Amino acid sequence: MRRTRLGLVGALAAVLVAAGLAAGPAAQAHERQPTLAGLAERHGRYFGSATDNPELTDSAYTKILGSEFDMITPGNGMKWYATEPEQGVFDWTAGDQIVDLARRHHQRVRAHTLVWHSQLPDWLTGKEWTAAELRAVLKKHITTEVRHYRGKVYSWDVVNEAFNEDGSYRETIWYKTLGPGYIADALRWAHKADPHARLYLNDYNIEAVGPKSDAYHRLAADLKARGVPLDGIGLQTHLALQYGYPATLEDNLRRFSRLGLDTALTEVDVRMQLPVTDAKLAEQAAWYRDLTTACLAVHRCVGVTIWDYTDKYSWIPDFFPGEGAALPWDERLDPKPAYSALLDALRQRAVT
Ligand code: G3I
């Protein structure tokens, strides 16, 4: 009788533990205060935020950055203008500061970005280069930067924003001087410099199926067929309420999975025309929920990163006058409805 009762107690305890109801203090605290990262981890995903060096002196800000997320992207600190301000002179100060901060908080780093047409130093843009010269400049930059961060970052956005809206190649300094082969070259050089980093192509307005995402699908299929080291496609996901939700996001993620590629939502924000209203915040929350659910539904969608987490440090008001309020935390660092919506989306049962 006694043995039976003990057996029942043991069985009940096992059930409670399995249900997360009788776990230790740490797990209970975790249950009471779930984080985006903690919930995402249950799905085998990460939940990240971009950050930037100037705001790292804001301790209320870094507290949330360090506790709520498990993946960090430097918003500017690893870009060319910051890392090679003079030809052949490398400066890792800004990027290292963010890598060190992430390490202290046991966070991984999505490194961003090696090849882009924007935020290039003057020495690079202010001169006519021959193809051979520019190729050497690009190879040296990629090799040096990727080697510096070897073993310290999870992934690289190797090429950023290579296509126009109609799916034609963007006429950047790289494309115009080197032709489309610069993309495969960049991936190969990056892979050689850090064979373990996951290598991405990254762009905006490729969340829905359409000419621009079709161009990435074609390019990715071609690169894979040729054995070029490409691991994933980053969908920046800078959305705006006035342009509508990209309803084909999940289908789009799936077709990249079928090519054997990871996908990630890499720079999410959902801006709105100001002033903020409760209705707009509710719609924004639904979009954050839906895009997270779409990622969770697709096995190879590895995680979501928001482009900083608070309206206090968002890039939107500077670039789109009259728009803003794009992130899940407001300017006072208080969570908005979008934050609860993210928690709700991540509380869904794992489906992969
Ligand atoms: O460094 C100067 C500083 O010396 C000066 O005092 C200050 C005055 O405005 O400007 C500083 O440069 C700013 C830079 O960010 C660093 O803070 C630039 O003006 C500003 O234009 C630049 O904006 C960045 C933007 O990329 C440039 O296109 C944003 O912070 C950054 O969040 C944004 O990130 C991009 C991704 O890399 C790619 N996808 C789109 C995304 C949003 O534009």
Describe the protein's topology.
Blueprint lengths: L1 H17 L6 H8 L3 H6 L4 E6 L7 H10 L2 E4 L5 H4 L9 H12 L3 E8 L6 H4 L5 H18 L6 E6 L12 H6 L3 H12 L4 E6 L7 H15 L6 E4 L2 E3 L8 H9 L4 E12 L4 H20 L3 E6 L9 H4 L3 E2 L12 H10 L6
Parallel strand pairs: 1-2, 1-9, 2-3, 3-4, 4-5, 5-6, 6-8, 7-8, 8-9
Antiparallel strand pairs: 8-10
This protein binds ligand G3I.
Which features characterize this protein?
single chain; 352 residues; alpha/beta; TIM Barrel; 8-stranded parallel β-barrel; 15 helices; 44% helix; disordered N terminus; binds ligand G3I
Give an overview in words:
The chain has about 350 residues and is α/β, with parallel strands linked by helices. It has one domain: TIM Barrel (Alpha-Beta Barrel), CATH 3.20.20.80. It is about 45% helix and about 15% strand. The protein is built from 15 helices and 10 strands. It has helices at about 1-20, 25-30, 35-40, 60-70, 80-85, 95-105, 120-125, 130-150, 175-180, 180-195, 210-225, 250-255, 280-295, 315-320, 335-345; strands at about 45-50, 70-75, 110-115, 155-160, 200-205, 230-235, 240, 260-275, 300-305, 325. It has an 8-stranded parallel β-barrel with strand order 1-2-3-4-5-6-8-9, surrounded by 5 helices. The protein is globular and about 55 Å long. The structure holds ligand G3I. Ligand G3I binds near residues 119, 204 and 315. Ligand G3I binds near residues 75, 236, 267 and 315.
